[in-house]
Amino acid sequence: MLHIAELTHVYANGVRALDNVNLDVPAGMFGLLGPNGAGKSTLMRSIATLQSPGSGTIRFGDIDVLKEPEKLRRTLGYLPQDFGVYPRVSARDMLDHMAILKGFSKASDRAEVVDGLLNQVNLWPVRNKAIAGFSGGMRQRFGIAQALIGNPRLIIVDEPTAGLDPEERNRFLNLLAEIGEGVVVILSTHIVEDVADLCPRMAILAGGRVVAQGAPRDLTQALRGRIWRKQITRAALEDYKQRFNVISTRLAGGATLINVLSDAAPEPDFTPVEGNLEDVYFSTLAATRAAA
Amino acid sequence: MFASVLGFEARYQLRNPVLWVSFGIFFLLTFGAVTVDQIQIGDTSNIKQNSPFAIVQTVFVMSIFALFAVAAFVANSVTRDDETGYGPILRATPLKKAPYLYGRFAGAYAAAAIGFLAVPAAILIGCAMPWLDPETLGPTNFGHYAYAYFVIALPTLFVFAAMLFALATATRSMMGAYLGLIAILVGWVVSGILLDQPGLEKTAAMIDPSGFAALAEQMEYWTAADRNTRLPELTGGFLLNRAVWFGFAIACLVLAYTFYRPDVKSAKAPKPEKVMAGKAGVASVNLPARTDRKASFTAATARRQLWARTVFDIKAVVKSPAFFILLVIGLFNASGALWFANEFRNTSIEPVTRLMVGALQGSFGIIPVVIAAYYAGDLVWRDRERRMHEIIDAAPVADWAFVLPKVLAIFLVLVSTALVGAIAGISVQALKGYTNFELGGYLLWWVIPMTISAAQLAVLSVFFQTISANKFMGWGLIIVYLISTLTLSNLGFEHNLYQFGGSPGVPLSAFNGMGHFWIARSWFDLYWGFFCIILVIAAYGLWRRGAETRLMPRLRRFPRRMAGATGAVLALSFAGFAGVGGWIFYNTNVLNIYQSSLAVERQLADMEKALAEFEGAPGPTITHVVLDADLRPKTRTATTKGSYVIENRTGAPLARMLVVWPRDVRVEAFDPGAAKLEQSWPEFKSELWAFEKPLQPGETRTINFTTVYGRPGFSNTAGQWRVIGNGTFIDNFELTPMLGVSQRFWLTDRARRRNYELDPERRMAKLEDGSANGKHYLRPDSEWVTSDITVHTDDDQIPIAPGYQVAEEKANGRITRRFETEAPIQHFFSIQSARYDLRTASVDTPLGPVKLEIYHHPEHTQNLERIETAMKASVRIFSERFSPFQFRQMRILEFPGYATFAQAFANTVPFSEDIGWLQANRDPDKVDLVTFVTAHEIAHQWWAHQVIGADKQGATMLSESFAQYSAMLVMEDLMGPEQVRQFLKVELDAYLTARGGEVVEELPLIRVENQDYIHYNKGALVMYFLRNEVGEEAVNRALNRLLAEYAFKPAPYPSSSDFVSLLREEAGPQHQDLITDLFERITLYDAKMLQATRQRLPDGRWEVALTIEARKLYADGQGQETEADLNEPFEIGVFTRKPESQGFSRADVLAFERYDLKTGTQTVTLVLPDGPEPLFAGIDPYVKRIDRNSDDNLIVVKSADDT
Questions:
Q1: pTM of this structure
Q2: Where are the beta strands (DSSP E) in B248-350?
């Protein structure tokens, strides 16, 4: 449904934020993974009609997004990475206002829509409280509520779970999961589990380029038998990094665990592990870094 | 610790843009006040821009303005930690309360003090600007700046900052501090008003937290010389005031310490999260479910969105504390102006809506500018600052739904602000017991014009914000715009075609409402309306949506946004703008003359250079005048056909004649007889004609002319107000030529004269100059003339001119009346025409009855009785005591309040709507101005229309001072001496204050050079005291002799010294010194009652012992005083009630006697008969002398036992 072709954007200061990005996004949840500064937000903003990329095309269904932004906006729900609130405005008033902006001019329709959403995102009990006093999770739920007004067919959520505690994060992802069929939801994030838990399809963006895309399962499948783990001392880490393609390290119970990408066991005491999406992510990034 | 907190705080505040913006504004305001004539802070008109007085005054006023910024700093320094959430971190440090609080306060105060340096710096820099007239500058003395900064500004800022700090600490909110500030300021002003009464000065001086009342008390009667050189002393009341309030400030800081609670500000703490966690499923029965309603995008949606955005933005403005504060400041400022709008020369007039609107225009005008500028920045940038812009910008809303709501919201807020102003006006009217609110007037004169300028301001501000990189730059652009408007007019660029939103004023009057003046304004409004549409479309085309904020890319996409209907509207607006502009230009510059005031001034200077040689040159004398004035109220024109009979009274043949036409007429025909044009100065409308045969001594000829006054269309200014739809009042100076020039034509302001390279010292002829007695001061080409004036006007109006009506004819909707004189009068005629009601009366005089006529607006009837009574008494008293009245008829006519004066023509007195017709006179203690002005103008029938002074020093003493004297006789006759005392009190204060403003030279009364404060204020004081000392008979005998010798006689004309000689003869030898002191010197007294004690004698009588200090001073023209020997009788009185208090009567006077006093301290003992207890004692208790400090003349008598 969403086709992005040869999208390139260079900022005035010379930063190449998007570099020939090509993406095909079908209906359903689509995860866009990438480290900070990978160009995710520029891509999201470009899709959300807020930025005109230097070159390339974005099509959503039969809408040429760059030429007819106003058409896309009618079916767009956007939750930016970072948004604030007006002081002294309650959640319900703000949603009501947004509903007007999204084309609900009849008050009764709007009340129905707003109240439904407030309930859906669990903000019904605090609907008359000022958003400024909300916690981070509540604020994000408000954010998704406004993005869902009018049942958009394209929903863009940019890093929605950053800074949320696990419970809130869960609650938020559940909300996303409830979004109806036949809708494109682009979830941009640097948290691998978000994508792993939710998205049937995904892409990894690094340095402004799409470095991998596909179904998480296919990508994980490709790593089968190539991820090896070993517990080492911290002092030895540098040595291992020199010798092997260490894609990630983590601490477990005071010891250091390293994951190494290799077609065969690097050393006898490495144990093979089932690769997961995180390994896909790290190995892709590692490959990108190596190439750069 | 304290020092580091202080340092951190000061640095923090100094990085705060609010500080720089506010002090930037203060800098510009001060700079403007110094360098631009139109911006005034306080009264610096007659003193050097950098005189200590001006510096102190400016610095003081700005320090009060600065409080609104200071409130923000000090409040911010305590509330910041709660707001940012940084508080808990700070409170977890071992920082103690005292260094924390006081460090913060001191830091914020230090930042404010550093910022306030902008004000003295602005004066200093402003005074260095090359375009300032060096005449208006004194030597630079850094000590004066330092004094003003350290002694005036810093202590005031400290006192208020400490109060605000305590408030902010106690309330823990910025709003609390602001409300407190407003309360303090309101209290300050109200107490100032309440305490503005004699006897309460000391209290007022003490209670004023700014110290200004104490300063004002010290500087009240400073002369210009004082103001230019002296600094106020930090002594006496001022020092005491500063000390008391410094102590109070310290107390506030201590209070702040006790108020301060280091706990977390409550209320916010627990998030309501728990309430709802995980319960969604449980409660779902009652909860609304998600629906599948579809959005729709129609024209109605777009309108709904526009309105929703507008309402949303309005709420943002209205709910913000700053709006409330601005509104209160505006009301605070306006309420003062409204309250005093109906004060005129110390008396109150009816608070009619027209006056309220005038007050609002003057005092409330700046608030809309600030609101528009501030909220344009706030609203345009709000989405971005709140980081809501990505959500909003991605919504399916048309681009114009961003720009228009901002404009609309600001516009609607400004309209409501205007309504608030109107409500304030109505409230003041109601409070004053006036109920004819004229809501239509408020709407047409105030709300609608305000609304239009509000819309213009809103558009401009939003446009500026749209093209700016941030809101500070947008605000900066507004400030640059405001300054450029002032600068442009200062440089002589006054055309409303390029002054954004400019339009001519619309003066108001009961005669005409808005008259024809609204037409010009409407065209200009339309013109700027088109321009505003262009600006809105430009703002729409350049609006930031999404991530692109740079101007250039937005400019590049501008053409794309102009496609379709938008472009068409833009093109139409351009066409409208250009078309209406062309029409306006045709009206203002082709049909009318556009001349900036600077150009007018330059022309006058050039005229003086070209024609000064003709001053005093021999010329013909006009002896008979025939005028036929055809007034057309509907087209506002007057065509005047006239002729002069001229005579050679010079004793030598006259070869030529200078003809100077009024500036604003078109000369349609001129027939000077057998003469040819020798030289012409078309730019000055002046011509020199050479007679073919010289005019022989004694020979008479007739010259004929036709002029047209009034032009079609409209002009760039409000235009002429003299020949109008209803209420025409024009005099012959505007219609007919003058045959010669006089020095009185030229520029008088010394600084301006210097600018145009004219001799700044050129002044009136000296008193000793006998050659000046050949001409009187009204005009150089006429002595006494006979006149024959015909006036035509529309037949629903009444035409009036001096002389007796001899014919009236009505035909074709027109009325014609002819007026002739029976005896010679001054060549000075008024021509009036209006829809009048007439009241008639009659008064008997020794020469027979005099018919009295009062022509007035039909609604202005409340003072007719009073005017009539004053007319009767005036005619009767003057003809009995001075000389017979020369007319059989006396008229007073109202004219529209476009100007505020009354003027005496022969048997005719035009009297402005605002002076005599709306006086309220509810307070019997206040001077009855109606009676006074009526009597004064009728007195001019003697003093100017019987005797007129020679054109030299002292001339106006013979008309104005004598008219003052005569009016006092009438007031005393009708209302008793108490009224006259009230009147003189005002005159004394006015004289002492005004002489401080003199820059050229204060002259003794006998040499007055047309100085108002001398011939009116001092004239009244001198004449009344003279009468008190030498007796009315002697004064009147001298006046009688002056009349007998000079009335209606041609040259030589009398001078002030001729009168003084007569007076010396009549007053007797014992009063010669007094006459010298009163007329020939500037004499000031300082009498003071130091102590008064009473003691009851065994026989029941009272013994009152008085200690009196007295001295006499002579001042020179610059205000330098020298002690003079005092040896004069003074009046001493003992009373049971204060003489100026209400209900004071003769019965309250226990003793009133004259004692000879000498310089220095002396005691007087009075023995009073058994009776009421003596309570007050006074030296010169009715203040008949010119006493430099009349407040210490009266004191309370103490019992001898108490002392």
A1: 0.82
A2: 343-344, 347-348
